[in-house]
Amino acid sequence: MSTLTTPSPDVATRSVRRTTRPMPVVYAGLDLKRQLRDKMGMFFIVALPAFLFFVFGMGDDEAYGSANVAMYVMVSMAAYGAVTATTTVVGAAATEQTMGWGRQIALTPLAPLAFVAIKTGVAMLVAAVPIALIYAIGAGTGSEGNTVDWIASAAIVWAGSALECWSRLGVAVAR
Asked: 61 lies in which domain range?
């Protein structure tokens, strides 16, 4: 004869406390880590623009407008790095869609708009890396301009890379 036992009231009413983060935050964190671990992508996003700034922007302190030529080269290389970053992230999103990752995401509660927002956020965070690095190198190597030039140019470069990201992401997701 077997006897059925019921669990004690303590065990039956005890709830499991979950401390998980929302899925979009987890997915964004994983995607950001994946993008930053891509050595080849980071070479073209960070190292190449920094190297090109060292080659073309160093030692050229001729005044031009309210800044010097080194600052113009610095802004150009930061723009190159930021647009390359957004193109790399969006290119990865397009590849993910064609390889079937979009179908896997569709099985989760993640909305398509959330996917686009996550990819945009990741692209913009990755785009901030070359901007910050090249501006730091420029500040240390003699790029000259007034404060408005520095802040406005960084904001315009970052916003310009956002437009590049949205236009390419729209095409990538529309496939």
From this structure: 44-174
CA dist 35 and 13 (Å) reads: 43
Is 68 domain-assigned? yes
Spatial distance between the Cα atoms of 110 and 88, rounded to a whole number of angstroms:
22
Return the higher-pLDDT residue of 101 and 159. 159
Mean pLDDT for 136-141 is 92
Q: What is the pTM of this model?
A: 0.80
Which distant-in-sequence residues (6+ apart) come within 8 Å of 131 by Cβ?
78, 81, 82, 154, 157, 158
